[in-house]
Amino acid sequence: MNMERILIVEDDIAFGTMIQTWLKKKGFEVEKVTSIKAAVLAWEGNKGATERTDNEHGDGKGFDLVLSDLRLPDHDGIFLLQWLRKHGIGVPFIVMTSYAEIQNVVLAMKSGATDYVAKPFHPEILLEKIKEAIRKGKEETERAENQGIGNNGIGNNGALTSNDASSSNSEGASSSNSKGASSSKFKGASSETSDEAPKYIEGESEASKKLYSFVSLVAPTPMSVLILGASGTGKEYVAHRIHELSPRADKPFFAIDCGAIPRDVAASEFFGYAKGAFTGAEQDKKGAFEMANGGTLFLDEMGNLSYDVQVQLLRALQERKIRPLGSNKEIDIDIRLVCATNENLAQRVAEGQFREDLYHRINEFTIYMPMLKERGMDLFLFAELFIKYANKELNRHVEGLDDKAKERIAAYSWPGNLRELNNVMKRATLLAQGRYIGVRELEMSMTQTQIQPQAPTTLRDEQTEQQRIEAALRAAGGNKSKAAQLLAIDRKTLYNKLKKFGI
Questions:
Q1: Chain segment 286-328, per-residue pLDDT in tens
Q2: What is the mean pLDDT of the chain?
Q3: How far apart are the first and last CA of the chain?
Q4: Shortest CA distance to 440 belongs to which of 449, 448, 432?
Q5: 325: helix, coil or strand?
Q6: pLDDT at 100 over 70
Q7: Tens digits of residue pLDDT in 60-90
Q8: 108, 160, 165, 422: least buried by Cβ within 10 Å?
């Protein structure tokens, strides 16, 4: 059985040697060079290569994978990637970079790179990426052979034949590797056609893999889960996934936004009420607990609950019974509780603003949501998905982002996370003049989402005060914490003002 061959292109000799030694121990045949020139010579099997550090004479044999640093003394790793594609060599290509910002690997992925890894990295993560890249390369070759078309233009060790060399430039590589790969990463979409938007995607970044490994771990259990993360990171979606992967998947999933519940109606929203319980109660109403009975109850913005409502909620969770307002009948409840917040509940407990016993009741297992900027190349997967959603909703036929637009979204920090990205893609899809969203349409769409903090506001005149509060709430999408920041007041003051004006 032939050993799989890897070419390492790394100018840090000590680091490259370390990787080489480790991969050899894992059963690979590894050659290491320190420049693009040496890499080209290594591939061509040139005996005169003076920069070769291993396999000095070369055997002309290709490689099963290239592992290249992004920054090299004579050129960058992108140059080597483009040289390989130009010469019809479709070998899997993984980029290593010390520059973890996403914009520094965008061009690599557009040029046909299989994957990337940011230094420093755990060796096992690199090994996983290498094995996956080689496996997919072999599967594509076998699939092509089984279809009776040779090997789909892929020669030994993944090299393209001359018939396809003309289409293997950097743009072509981008189309086949970036666009095609992203489609394969839409998990849960096996029943969907390529033109249909899948129900959800999880992503392929290390942050996403870690997130959903925790989801898969806790979902089958009865444990209460607390999801922590900034606004727009997808907390409700994760709550849905926990429910869908649990034994309660065929039972109800009911979500309620605790931040939108006024204190005086919280009890009726949670527990329901009987006909005649108060003026206007013309019929029985089920509360959130009864609606979710047997299934999962998702309490979003948990940190916004007032203290007295927390007491009522704790009692229901402890006793597993509720009593609708105006009723003398108790109802047994059986729910899986999932909560979410962008607040630091531990800090609020320390400050006496959140009950410690309730905190421990809802926090049997904690999941932390990564920011969008921490999810690497998943950004493009989500952008593609949101464009598909927008196409369906707006009856448009946009195929995606052009190259400059991709570079623009990669360079932006996305403080509003997935929610902001979704909104931008929807507007850009509407504005697009052709098949692809250009940077002009993208910039116009992004401008509409960016919130500029206002100068500290003195809230004195009541009419002006109310107007400014309402404007801040609109700008913050209803998020009271963000609105308070925009107004340069603390959240408690804002809540008092909202109560005062009946907002």
A1: 989 999 999 999 999 888 888 888 888 898 999 999 888 888 8
A2: 78
A3: 73
A4: 432
A5: strand
A6: no
A7: 457 899 999 888 888 888 889 988 888 888 8
A8: 165
Edge-to-edge order in the sheet of strand 5-9: 29-33, 5-9, 65-69, 93-97, 115-118
User: What span, in angstroms and rounded, lies between the C-alpha atoms of 319 and 322?
Assistant: 8
> In the predicted model, what is the mean pLDDT of residues 273-291?
84
Vertex 370: Cα angle to 364 and 374 (nearest 5): 155
The two most distant CA atoms of the chain are separated, in Å, by 94
Residue 448 in tokens = 């509409």
Task: Summarize the confidence of residues 46-61 as an average pLDDT.
Answer: 40
d(CA 387, CA 211): 24
- Assess contact for 5 and 64: CB atoms under 8 A: yes
Q: Report the candidate in 329, 325, 315 with the shortest Cα–Cα distance to residue 273.
A: 325
Q: Do 173 and 112 touch, CB atoms closer than 8 A?
A: yes
Query: What is the phi-psi region of residue 14: left when phi exceeds 0, alpha when psi lies from -120 to 50, beta otherwise?
Result: alpha
Task: List the single range of 59-63, 172-176, 462-466 with lowest mean pLDDT.
Answer: 172-176
Q: Residue 321: which H helix or E strand, with range? A: strand 321-322
How many helices (H) and strands (E) the chain has is answered by 21, 14
Provide the token pair at 429. Answer: 């899809």
Contact of 108 with 95, CB cutoff 8 Å: yes
- Kindly list the structural domains of the chain, giving each domain's residue range(s) and its CATH number in brackets, ordered by start: 5-184 (3.40.50.2300), 206-368 (3.40.50.300), 377-447 (1.10.8.60), 462-501 (1.10.10)
d(CA 429, CA 399): 9
Nearest to 246 by CA among 299, 211, 297: 297
Q: Which residues pair with 65 in a beta bridge?
A: 6
Residues 6+ positions from 178 with CB-CB distance below 8 Å: 109, 110, 112, 380
Compute, in degrees rounded to 10, the torsion defined by CA atoms 417, 420, 421, 427: 180
**C-alpha–C-alpha distance, residues 336 and 224, integer Å:** 6
Is the pLDDT at 27 greater than 80? The verdict is: yes
Residues 6+ apart with CB under 8 A from 487: 454, 457, 459, 468, 469, 472, 494
- Residue 231 backbone phi and psi in degrees, to 5: -60, 140
Classify residue 159 by its DSSP letter: B
The Cα–Cα gap between 393 and 396 comes to 8
Tokens of 185: 């990463």
Strand intervals (E) in 229-310? 253-257, 296-300
Residue 439, both tokens = 């940077």
